[in-house]
Amino acid sequence: MKQLKRNIAIVCGGDSSEHDVSLRSAQGLYSFFDKERYQVYIVDIKGQDWHVELPDGTTARIDRNDFSFIENGEARLFDYAYITIHGTPGENGILQGYFDLIRLPYSTSGVLVEAMTFDKFVLNQYLRGYGVAVADSLLIRQGYEQLVSDEEIERRIGMPCFVKPATDGSSFGVSKVKNADQLAPAIRKAMMESPEIMVEQYLEGTEITIGIYKTHEKSVTLPITEVVTQNEFFDYDAKYNGQVKEITPARISEDIARRVREITSHIYDILHCNGIIRIDYIISKDGKIWMLEVNTTPGMTPTSFIPQQVKAAGLEMKDVLTDIVENQF
Questions:
Q1: Dihedrals φ, ψ of 213, to 5°?
Q2: 13 with 83: CB under 8 angstroms?
Q3: Pairing of strands 219-221, 206-214
Q4: Rounded to an integer, what distance in angstroms lies between the CA atom of residue 134 and that of residue 121?
Q5: In this predicted model, what pLDDT tens digit does every residue of 14-71 receive, in sequence order?
Q6: Which of 61-65, 214-218, 245-249, 271-275 has the lowest mean pLDDT?
Q7: How many Å is the Cα radius of gyration of the chain?
């Protein structure tokens, strides 16, 4: 008897400024998935509009009661959701809670981990307790800006510093602030993206990023990529408009590379992650490894870091995705 293919939903879109970036990741994932093994659909979520793209070019509404849809007059259910939303509701635990309720396996970590990694300030405080080196930072909430003065920021964090949304992606609303006069407009800009923002110590050094995933059978740490940009920092243009040089493997010593791999595996286990994640670091001149950010739904376009690293490792994205999906069954 012919084995039925699992129905896979690549869930993309979302309600953040990175909606369109998510759609590009979905197209990348669709091209990578093993179509001989899986029946793959793209599901676009934005607000209350949830729909699935059908093979004939039409779309069908997703029934949110059970995440089903109608195709050729028949109701179809998904067996698995591969979440590639950058921002809310797919990167902060909201969608994960929904999938938990309807008992649908998914590619990311669980509700608590997603909520925590989405909030950069909370994550930093949590990982600091496990000995992970992170930059010093202050939290400012909308409506309570007066509780943190410019003088305190300058004294505690120093200049230059970064002002960024605490609970959104790292592509929008980020400013590098060089003096106190720039703080107020930078805070306003960040608060257009998130009601909570963080002012973070500036770290100088080599920026790197590394992907990792684990299954019941194995732990796969991918080659490290060095990120070199002529911009002030790794902003939206650097990420998505080619204003960056990405070097894999990174030009760092084997000793530092080994320590980065160990820290990355440790963080994965501390957070009890699931699926493929990407962690960004700064290597300071004294060789100290500073964790910048944990990305639980990393970009998946053909030119994104993870596909590049998978290729550099001599692996196939098709096989990596199969590993991640089948680990849930």
A1: -145, 155
A2: no
A3: antiparallel
A4: 10
A5: 998 888 989 999 999 999 999 999 999 999 999 999 999 999 999 999 999 999 999 9
A6: 245-249
A7: 20
